[in-house]
């Protein structure tokens, strides 16, 4: 593995110069002559590896220039008359890369393939989403002929739990002669990932660079002041933690927190002491405000003193958070624009633009405004005028003219692409974005601002990780433009500067596989390779590779513990007899006594509950504990809760309830009185009269009602366990080792032996659970497919693909088997094209958790019936998956049915989105995914021609207006 950590030494520079001279006549030399800048050393090393016929994994910070390696792969392919595919995780990045490569190599030489777009797909260079390449491989597409190179941009995306498996499928199934250039963000286990690539793809070089070409400075914005996070001159490269000297692996997190704050001379990189003082002061004020004395007057006086104090850097005291316009104005004053402000909320991004516009802030010159207006009007000229208002076009345009824009998934793709271009050209100066912008879209800035260090992950608010912090702030610093980049965290109440420094200084971003066999993947593997070979292929996945590596470590621990166990066994050897057997008797006795003690405790509680349940209104009892111990009258029994809590009246007229916590043992009535029908517990006189009756009954020693049992069986609790304990004690005393003078010493070794034995057995179970885990999941998937008839027993007892199984091979998506079942059961047969589009949305759409509600009424009776078929089939499938211990297929969602139905009917976008929480950009994105599914169905070989025709017709109905226009700018 090659690791580039910083500038080269003089000797290294000389050697590199000599190598560059030698390579002048090579492909790399020719490629370098097409560039107007010198390659960095890590770029040169990676390009050499490709030139030598090897695969390469390049892991480097955002903005370091990894894509140059991908462009060299394309250059090599064109020079050798081969094809090159450039894959990306998202369509926005595919569109951007398609535009860049078309400008460089000519539109006739570059194609684009995404789920809903196909442009020049037979070109020698094709940009595509990774799913498209996966589908090609399973379909054995002719487009793969003469493929020489595949560039997998943002390959670390394989850790994504929803789509990450696709990257592994592609890497495993690509023909062996294809060279793969994998481009990744800096990950802490690049060596492990590279070792797997080397295993499945052949000779693969690992090139890791921690060096940022543009230094990154870390700041905190306190009020309107931008304060350095670290004391002294400390950049991104300088705070990178060292790897372990022997293994090269990242050092543990707790050690990183110390090591990452020391320089080469052992001096600590201190957090700015002003920030630490402010955090302490804020904490003390918070404590005083909550628990101190003095009330409002003291707090008002303190606030007045704070407001009167001039702002000078990070002064201790309560800090008033700057508004979003004030943040941008502060950045502008210090020449730190253009900036990207990450706000983990779409609504927050839109609100930030509105706030900046309302504040009267302008960041653009008149000339820039003219250029922006021309670009924006060009982008909007083909959008139907009726749709411009609902798309928020005029608000969007007004913000852009002032130099502000939002960037998030809820925007129309066209609008996002305009924002990206204007920002790259320096015309838009402040972008408010969600974290999706950090996913590879090329929008570097001079500064990056983080409003908060926590986000909502769909279930809860969680802190961002060190890897996410590095990914987000990596956008700061434009190579060739900025001398330095700046990361700014906004001070919030409760901000811990040391924690921020920990995020900024750690490089813990492990790449963990999310791979698991799906129905479509499994049936394609079976069709191409058979079951035995398919299992072998799945066992070559990165997921199994990681599991096997962990097994190696666990096995090492087991061997070490077995050696210790042998030593313990020797130490507990007794000359009088078998001490192992004696130790077993001691352990059984101890376990039996513990079980009996717990059982008695549970039985005791149960008896107490039973005694409370037996109480009847009018019973007079003696409550032994609680808030009001002493005699009391039961007013009502209670059987509604898990534990009975009858209501009582104490003799001093208090009303309350009693429970098992008030008892020391079962409670029985002392006497009994009659409660008058006229008794009202809310009337003090009624309570006094009833208490008086109870006192009289107690004085007269009246017995409780005849026939009431007060025997709770305390003497018969757990007789069998007591007998077992007696037998074990007798056997223990009779054992020869019981009389050993060193018995307790042997016993201590025995306890250590049993404890270590249990831990070792647990490790062995872990190893058994991790061995062949992927293949075992594959077997369970095959069982489900067989149960549904997609797999059949062939003549030679091998599994064969049924006609329905052949159809499943061409259905890609998270609900692949459910979609196939819907086709199989004729859910589309009685629908027209409009209804087909609406039903397809049920099989694609995924609502946010908070958007899910009651099932809506369907637009037509036939569609209602088809939806019923889908939901019934999903419910049955979920039961089968649960029985086979497989991940559950997501529930069909009906929230897009009406919007899709209206859109297919030709309604205006305003009418379609009325009454929904869908943003225009979200709607367009979901329509494109519906188009993708319908296109898959239309092309399934052997499908009913009428259904294929309906799918194609449905595509033509919904690919219109903003949906058609936003495919490619």
Keywords for this structure?
11% strand, 25 strands, 35 helices, nine-stranded mixed sheet, alpha/beta, 969 residues
- Work out the helix count: 35
The overall pLDDT average reads: 81
Query: Which parts are unreliable, with pLDDT below 50 for 5 consecutive residues or more?
Result: 242-268, 287-316
How far is it from the N-terminal to the C-terminal residue, by CA? 41 Å
Query: Helices and strands: which structural class?
Result: alpha/beta
Number of strands: 25
Radius of gyration, whole Å: 36 Å
Strand content: 5-15%
The biggest beta sheet reads: 9 strands, mixed
Describe the structure in your own words.
This protein has a nine-stranded mixed beta sheet with strand order 1-9-2-8-7-3-6-4-5, sandwiched between helices. It has a seven-stranded mixed beta sheet with strand order 11-10-18-15-12-14-13, sandwiched between helices. It has a five-stranded antiparallel beta sheet with strand order 22-21-20-19-23, covered by helices on one side. About 6% of the residues have low confidence. With 969 residues, it is α/β, with parallel strands linked by helices. It is 49% helix and 11% strand. Helix 18 crosses helix 19. It is globular and about 110 Å long. It contains 35 helices and 25 strands. The two termini are 41 Å apart.
Give the gist of this structure.
This protein is α/β, with parallel strands linked by helices and 969 residues long. 49% of the residues lie in helices and 11% in strands. The chain is built from 35 helices and 25 strands.
Please outline the helices and strands:
Layout: E1 2-4, H1 10-22, H2 27-33, H3 41-51, E2 55-59, H4 67-79, E3 83-88, H5 91-105, E4 110-113, E5 118-119, E6 125-129, H6 130-139, E7 147-152, H7 165-173, E8 179-184, H8 190-201, E9 204-209, E10 216-222, E11 225-228, H9 253-259, H10 273-291, H11 295-308, H12 324-333, E12 339-342, H13 346-358, H14 366-380, H15 385-390, H16 393-402, E13 404-407, H17 413-424, E14 430-433, E15 447-450, E16 454-456, E17 461-463, H18 466-473, E18 485-490, H19 497-505, H20 519-538, H21 542-571, H22 579-614, E19 619-623, E20 630-636, E21 647-650, E22 655-657, E23 671-672, H23 684-699, H24 719-734, H25 743-770, H26 773-787, E24 791-793, E25 799-801, H27 803-808, H28 816-824, H29 833-842, H30 861-883, H31 897-904, H32 909-913, H33 920-938, H34 945-958, H35 961-965
Parallel strand pairs: 1-9, 2-8, 2-9, 3-6, 3-7, 4-6, 7-8, 10-18, 12-14, 12-15, 13-14, 15-18
Antiparallel strand pairs: 4-5, 10-11, 16-17, 19-20, 19-23, 20-21, 21-22, 24-25
């Amino acid at each position: 593995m090659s690791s580039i950590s910083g500038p080269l030494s003089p000797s290294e520079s000389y050697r590199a110069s000599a190598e560059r001279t030698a390579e002048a006549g090579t492909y790399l030399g020719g490629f370098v002559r097409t560039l107007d800048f010198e390659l960095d050393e890590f770029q040169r090393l990676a390009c050499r590896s490709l030139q030598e016929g090897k695969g390469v994994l390049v892991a480097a910070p955002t903005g370091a220039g990894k894509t140059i390696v991908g462009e060299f792969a394309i250059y090599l392919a064109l020079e050798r008359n081969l094809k090159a595919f450039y894959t990306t995780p998202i369509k926005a990045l595919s569109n951007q890369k398609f535009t860049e490569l078309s400008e460089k190599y000519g539109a006739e030489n570059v194609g684009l393939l995404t789920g809903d777009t196909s442009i020049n797909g037979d070109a020698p260079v094709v940009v595509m989403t990774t799913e498209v390449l996966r589908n090609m491989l399973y379909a054995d597409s002719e487009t793969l002929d003469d493929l020489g190179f595949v560039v997998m941009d943002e390959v670390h995306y394989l850790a994504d739990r929803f789509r990450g498996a696709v990257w592994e499928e592609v890497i495993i199934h690509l023909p062996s002669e294809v060279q793969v250039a994998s481009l990744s963000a800096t990950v802490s286990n690049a060596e492990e990932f590279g070792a797997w690539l080397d295993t499945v793809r052949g000779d693969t070089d690992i090139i890791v660079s921690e060096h940022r070409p543009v230094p990154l400075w870390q700041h905190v914005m306190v009020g309107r002041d931008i304060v350095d996070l670290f004391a002294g001159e400390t950049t991104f490269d300088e705070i990178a933690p060292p790897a372990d000297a022997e293994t090269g692996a990242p050092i543990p997190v707790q050690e990183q927190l110390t090591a990452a704050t020391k320089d080469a001379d052992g001096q600590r990189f201190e957090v700015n002491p002003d920030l630490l003082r402010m955090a302490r002061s804020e904490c003390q004020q918070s404590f005083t405000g909550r628990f101190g004395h003095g009330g409002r007057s003291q707090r008002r006086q303190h606030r007045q003193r704070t407001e009167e104090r001039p702002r000078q850097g990070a002064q201790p005291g309560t800090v008033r958070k700057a508004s979003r316009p004030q943040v941008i104005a502060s950045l502008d004053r210090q020449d730190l624009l253009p900036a990207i402000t990450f706000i983990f909320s779409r609504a927050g991004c839109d609100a930030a633009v509105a706030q900046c516009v309302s504040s009267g802030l302008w960041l653009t010159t008149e000339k820039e405004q003219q250029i922006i207006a021309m670009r924006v009007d060009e982008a909007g000229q083909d959008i139907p005028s009726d749709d411009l208002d609902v798309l928020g076009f005029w608000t969007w345009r007004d913000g852009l003219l002032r130099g502000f824009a939002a960037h998030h998934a809820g925007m129309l793709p066209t609008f996002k692409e305009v924002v990206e271009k204007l920002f790259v050209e320096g015309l838009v100066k402040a972008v408010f974005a969600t974290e999706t912008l950090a996913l590879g879209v090329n929008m570097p800035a001079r500064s990056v601002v983080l409003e908060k260090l926590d986000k909502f992950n769909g279930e809860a608010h969680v802190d961002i990780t060190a890897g996410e912090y590095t990914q987000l702030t990596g956008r700061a610093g434009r190579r060739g433009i900025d001398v330095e980049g700046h990361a700014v965290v906004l001070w919030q109440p409760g901000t811990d500067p040391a924690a921020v420094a920990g995020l900024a200084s750690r490089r813990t971003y492990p790449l963990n596989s999310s791979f698991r066999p799906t129905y479509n993947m499994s049936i394609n593997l079976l069709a191409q390779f058979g079951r035995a070979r398919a299992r072998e292929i799945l066992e070559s996945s990165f997921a199994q590779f990681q599991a096997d590596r962990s097994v190696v470590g666990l096995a090492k621990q087991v061997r070490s513990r077995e050696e210790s166990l042998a030593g313990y066994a020797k130490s507990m050897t007794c000359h009088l007899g078998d001490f192992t057997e004696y130790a077993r008797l001691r352990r059984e006795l101890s376990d039996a006594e513990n079980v009996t003690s717990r059982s008695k405790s549970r039985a005791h509680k149960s008896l107490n509950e039973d005694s409370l349940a037996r109480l009847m209104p009018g019973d007079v009892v003696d409550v032994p504990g609680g808030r009001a111990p002493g005699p009391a009258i039961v007013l009502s029994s209670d059987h509604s809760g898990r534990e009975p809590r009858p209501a009582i009246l104490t003799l001093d007229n208090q009303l309350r309830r009693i429970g098992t916590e008030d008892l020391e043992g079962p409670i029985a009535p002392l006497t009994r009185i009659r409660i008058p029908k006229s008794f009202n517990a809310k009337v003090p006189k009624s309570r006094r009269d009833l208490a008086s009756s109870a006192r009289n009954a107690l004085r007269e020693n009246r017995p409780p009602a005849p026939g009431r049992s007060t025997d709770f069986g305390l003497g018969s609790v757990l007789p069998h366990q007591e007998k077992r304990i007696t037998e074990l004690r007798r056997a223990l005393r009779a054992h020869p080792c019981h009389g050993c003078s060193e018995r307790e010493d042997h016993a201590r070794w025995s306890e250590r032996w049993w404890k270590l034995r249990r831990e070792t057995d647990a490790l062995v179970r872990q190893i058994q659970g991790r061995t062949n885990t992927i293949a075992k999941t594959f077997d369970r998937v095959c069982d489900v497919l067989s149960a549904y008839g997609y797999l059949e027993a062939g003549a030679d007892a091998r599994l064969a693909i049924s006609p329905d199984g052949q159809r499943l091979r061409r259905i890609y998506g998270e609900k692949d088997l459910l979609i196939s079942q819907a086709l199989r059961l004729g859910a589309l047969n009685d629908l027209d094209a409009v209804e087909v589009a609406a039903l397809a949305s049920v099989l694609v759409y995924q609502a946010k958790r908070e958007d899910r509600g009651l099932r809506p009424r369907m637009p037509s009776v036939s569609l209602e019936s088809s939806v019923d078929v889908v939901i019934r089939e999903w419910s049955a499938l979920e039961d089968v998956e649960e029985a086979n211990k497989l991940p559950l297929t997501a529930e069909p969602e009906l929230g897009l049915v009406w919007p899709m139905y209206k859109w297919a009917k030709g309604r205006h976008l305003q009418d379609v989105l009325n009454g929904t929480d869908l943003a225009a950009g979200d709607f367009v994105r979901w329509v494109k995914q519906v188009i993708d599914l319908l296109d898959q169905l239309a092309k399934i070989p052997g499908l009913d021609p009428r259904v294929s025709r309906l799918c194609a017709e449905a595509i033509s109905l919904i690919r219109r207006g903003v949906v058609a226009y936003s495919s490619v700018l």
